[in-house]
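Let us practice reading a record.
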Amino acid sequence: MFSLDEVSSTRKVEDQLSKCKEELDRHRVNVIELQQNLINNQQEQLRSMTTSVQKVKAYSTVLAQNCAAVSPVARKSSQEPTNAPLSERDKNLVIFGIPETTDRLTKTSVDGLFAELNEKPKVNSMKRIGEKNEKGPRPLLVSFERRATLMALLKKSRQ
C-alpha cells in the first residue's frame, strides 16, 4: 500500500498537472483569437490593395485616353529617343490609397500590388510624401532602378 505522504504528494502533482492543462487550454484559445485577428487584418489589407489596383487601372485608362487625344505629330516627337540623361523623377511611381502601417507591411502591400500585375520590379526606395492627416493615407512614392521597369508596370496596369 501507499503511504499517506505518497498519496498526498500524488494529489499535489495531479492538481499541478490539472492547473497546467487549464493554462495550456487558455493559451490555445488566445492563440486562436490572435490568428483570427491576423486573418481579419490581412483580409482588410487585401481589400484595400484591390481598391488601390482598381484606382491605378482607372487612372491608367484616363491617362491612355488623354494620351490618345494628343496629335500623332506631337506623340511621335515625344517618343523619339533623346540622349538627355533621365532624371530620378522619371523612375518614380506615386501610389495612392495604400494604408499607412509599418514599413514592412507597406512593402508587403506594394509587393502584392505588383504581384497582381505579375511583376517583381527592383525597387530602390519607398517613402510617404506629404503631411500626415486624418483624411486618409498619404501617397507612396516608389522609386525604381530603371525607367523601363516603371513603363512596363504602367503598361500592364492599363490592360
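A brief commentary: The chain has a mean pLDDT of 82.
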